[in-house]
Amino acid sequence: MNQSLLTHKRKGGFSLIELMVVIAIVLVMSLAIFGVMSTSEGKKRSLTSVNDINQSGNFALFQLEKALRNAGSGFSQSYAQSFGCKLFASQKQAVPGNTGVVLPFPGAAMAEPFKTVNATVGGIYMLAPMIIASGATKPGMSGSTSDALIVMAGSAGYGEVPTAFTNVATSTQLNLQSTLSFNPNDFVLVADEAGSAGSLPCMIEQVDSGYTAGSNATALPLAGTYYASSIKDKGGAIRNLIDFSNNALAMGIGNSAGNPPSFQMFGVGDNNVLFQYDLLQGGAYDTPIPIADGVFEMHALYGVDTNNDGLVDTWIDPSTAGYDYATLESGTVAANNTLLTIKAIRLGLIMRTSLPEKAPVTTGPLVLFSDLGTTLTFTRTLAAAEQNYRYRIIESTIPLRNSLLLN
User: Fold this and answer.
1) How far apart are CA 148 and CA 137, in angstroms?
2) Torsion-angle region of 282 (φ positive above 0: left; ψ -120 to 50: alpha; else: beta)
């Protein structure tokens, strides 16, 4: 009897206490596994975000470096006539109600993040290889100002040799010593030697698509999207093609069929996006194009050759008097001479991950140009909420090769 009862008890299963112990152990193990998985997933997201901003930063730097290395191509060798000239350009049907004028910029306000840049120069852009617009954009996420870049370059590939006029232009053609270096649909920059600094205008024109080069041809016919016999700016001033003297020069700066000139602005806007803006409005009118994300701020310095030996002797903050972009865009003799001394750009990008983390991971401060001394070092202090993101700093020194050739 006793043996039967004992057997019956053993067949009865686990007790309640035993079950509760097992459940508790399983819960503890589940919590531990989920904790490990959560930590692992968080580290994976952080690593992915950091990799993303590293790649995005390298791509942004590549795009900027490509533009800056070509700055001044097509017109730097004729700097005496071209630097600081007031740009006039028209594109048929580009601006409804403004007869197609694109330069000077005809709108009341340019699209962000370039509204401040445009307002400072009054929509009037002077020809220059590159200019840093210090503190000209204010990205929404950063809440602090970033620099913008104005970069101009041609892409004709003919050694930047200008062609002199033999006679004044007509309303539909240029009369040149030779037209062999031009092709159908080429962009042509026309600049005059007559006039005073700050008042010299230049026009961007286009070669007729039906033009055929000849060994003795001197007449270059004009037609196409960017052709205009006269252009009116916002102030009512009119620039006519026939107003150029017989001392004017014509410079090929690219072709509309896949090799146009690059008259661009670069700046950081909202959502940590680096934008590119076409001053010639080759795409949709007044529309900045995003080229890289994760760019929190952008800052730059001028590398200046003070003794004309082709070497950078000093670095200068672009907010310094005489180097501010309003002065460099004024077209004066002093401004043009300053442009000639700028041989390189020191560029710094602050990259930031897109998602915040639960705890502060970057206490800062973030420092750019730390090797150039305290007066040129840029320091970005991070607010408490900003410390929950991860940051990367990317710097590069970029030579302006066309400016280096002017020594």
Assistant:
1) 7
2) alpha
Q: Is residue 15 part of a domain?
A: no
* DSSP secondary structure string for all residues of 38-97: HHHHHHHHHHHHHHHHHHHHHHHHHHHHHHHHTTTTTTGGGHHHHTTPEEEEE-TTSSTT
3-class SS of residue 375: coil
Residue 152: strand pairing partners: 263
Query: Is residue 346 a contact partner of residue 371, using CB atoms and an 8 Å limit?
Result: no
Q: Which residues contact 4 (CB under 8 A, 6 or more apart)?
A: none
| Distance in angstroms (rounded) separating the CA atoms of residues 70 and 172 | 30
Chain-centre distance for alpha carbon 48: 26
* Residue 400 maps to a domain: yes
Q: How far apart are CA 45 and CA 292, in angstroms?
A: 20
* Sign, CA torsion 268/297/377/62: negative
pLDDT in tens, 257-315: 878 999 999 999 999 999 999 999 988 889 999 999 999 999 999 999 999 888 999 99
CB 367 within 8 A of CB 379: yes
What are 90's strand-pairing partners? Answer: 101
Residues 202 and 86 sit within 8 Å (Cβ to Cβ) = yes
- CB–CB of 175/166 below 8 Å? yes
Q: Do the domain assignments include residue 352?
A: yes
Q: What is the pTM of this model?
A: 0.87
Average pLDDT over residues 176-193: 91
What does the alpha-carbon distance between residue 301 and residue 322 come to, in Å, rounded to a whole number?
14
The residue range of the domain holding 183 is 71-404
* Tokens (6 digits) for 308: 């004309």
Contact 241, 230 (CB under 8 A): yes
399 touches 69 (CB < 8 A):
yes
DSSP classification of residue 248? -
Q: Which of 350, 293, 335 is nearest to 144 (CA)?
A: 350
Instruction: Assess if residue 136 is contained within a domain.
Output: yes
Give the Å distances, CA to CA, from 271 to 300, 309, 348. 21, 43, 18
201 pLDDT tier (thresholds 50, 70, 90): confident
In tens, the pLDDT along 42-96 reads: 565 666 777 888 999 999 999 999 999 999 998 988 888 889 999 999 998 655 5
CB 380 within 8 A of CB 319: no
Give the chain's domain count.
1
